[in-house]
Write a structure and sequence with these properties.
Helix content is 36%, strand content 14%. With 411 residues, the chain is α/β, with parallel strands linked by helices. The chain folds into two domains: 142 residues, Aspartate Aminotransferase, domain 1; 257 residues, Aspartate Aminotransferase, domain 2, CATH 3.40.640.10. It binds D-malate.
Length: 411
């Protein structure tokens, strides 16, 4: 008799964003005239930058000709993209990351989940609370946790609360942990980590022989020059950290799919017998067995983001979304709402008015203003009483959303 992976049965009912989608669809069916504005999932709305479109068209034409046709590409990604990333994203900031330490993939969501393939099953794992749900759910699926409690916390995980008291930048764990998920600029709270904060984490990881899984999917949205874009800007991080980056939001690739993961060559973890093993080799082995690479057309498009026109168009796209973030932040503050993030990140995190629970505020906004956001409690117990708005939308929708917010909050 075939058996299922029973760890899946520990998961809370649905993944957060499909669950929101389900509720919104039900509301839309019951209220067909409602003009719903979606500021929930961070999904881009603006068309691809022209330099990227042109490169993708050209790549399709190459595939249409016998002499330039390509079949399987390298599982780790094409050299032209890995080299462009090493040069523009790392060397230009004085950060040492070589092209062959960069693994191209079809998304950071997949990579942050798949990375667990190369780690053992008895690691102590720390996550922030609130947190991007993929880190938690993939550990549940892998059997690294116990059951969930009434607050939505899984047994066996070490939760690091982000609160207004610590400005949503959690403190170090008070006990030794082996794997630590960090996400900066942060999803969902939109906060950033200073160089000092990241230094403390790198020191902690070096002292405890732990590995930091650093999700930098939103680094392109940083505007403050003092904030690190990469954990490798911190001395000693190459021995303790894996970094994830994404093209999803910076060049509008949520549907196109392209991302990268950096695994430095000197990064190691131990076998149960104490032997040190290269994580770079394990990840390379994992990818070449389970993945056939992102498509040539997509990688050509991503590489075009590093051309002079591509860089300018990417900057304009990021600035567009960050203006949305500023409008949301300022508009909500003017209504007397306590707001966080939205300065170096495309997410605005707010305290719900009148101490409403996150889901009650979700229901109120949807029913009274036809607005969709993400309940903070969906990101973890410490997110209860908070709410996330995404800045990824058209300007007209953001402006209209603020008008509707005002009607709800003032009524
Ligand atoms: C989000 O809304 O948190 C993101 O769009 C999720 C993702 O990038 O997978």
């Amino acid at each position: 008799m075939a058996q299922v992976n029973e760890h899946f049965l520990k998961l809370k009912a649905g993944y957060l964003f499909p669950e929101i989608g389900r509720r919104v669809t039900a509301f839309a069916q019951a209220n067909p005239a409602a003009k719903i504005i979606r500021l929930g999932i961070g999904d881009v709305t603006e068309p691809l930058p022209p330099a990227i479109v042109a490169a993708m068209h050209e790549a399709v034409d190459e595939l249409a000709r016998r002499e330039s046709f390509k079949g399987y590409g390298p599982e780790q990604g094409y050299g032209f993209l890995r080299e462009a990333i090493a040069l523009n994203d790392f060397a230009s900031r004085g950060v040492e990351v070589s092209a062959d330490e960069i693994f191209i993939s079809d998304g950071s969501k997949c990579d942050t989940g798949n990375i667990l393939d190369i780690f053992g099953n008895s690691n102590r794992i720390a996550v922030a609370d609130p947190v991007y749900p993929v880190y938690v759910d993939t550990n549940v699926m892998a059997g690294h946790t116990g059951p969930v409690d009434e607050f939505g916390r899984y047994g066996g995980l070490v939760y690091l609360p982000g609160t207004e008291g610590n400005q949503f930048v959690p403190d170090l764990p008070s006990e030794p942990v082996d794997l630590i998920y960090l996400c900066y600029p942060n999803n969902p709270t939109g906060t950033v980590a200073s160089k000092e904060t990241l230094k403390r984490w790198v020191e902690y990881a070096r002292k405890n022989d732990s590995i930091i899984l650093f999700d930098a999917a939103y680094e392109a949205f940083i505007s403050d020059p003092s904030i690190p874009h990469s954990i490798y800007e911190i001395e000693g991080a190459r021995e303790v950290a894996i970094e994830f980056r994404s093209f999803s939001k910076s060049i509008g690739f949520t549907g196109v799919r392209c991302a990268l993961t950096v695994v430095p060559k000197q990064l190691t973890a131990k076998t149960s017998g104490g032997e040190r093993i290269s994580l770079h080799q394990l990840w390379s082995r994992r990818q070449s067995t389970k993945f056939n690479g992102a498509s040539y057309v997509v990688q050509k498009g991503a590489a075009a983001a590093y051309s002079p026109e591509g860089k300018a168009q990417m900057r304009a796209l990021i600035d567009f979304y960050m203006t949305n973030a500023r409008l949301l932040r300022e508009g909500l503050e003017a209504l007397g709402i306590r707001v966080f993030g939205g300065v170096n990140a495309p997410y605005v995190w707010l305290k719900t008015p009148n101490n409403l629970s996150s889901w009650d505020f979700f229901d109120l906004l949807l029913s009274k203003a036809n607005l969709v956001g993400t309940p903070g409690s969906g990101f973890g117990a410490a997110g209860e009483g908070y709410f996330r708005l995404s800045a990824f939308n058209s300007r007209a929708n953001v402006e209209e959303a603020l008008v509707r917010f005002k009607q709800v909050v003032k009524s």
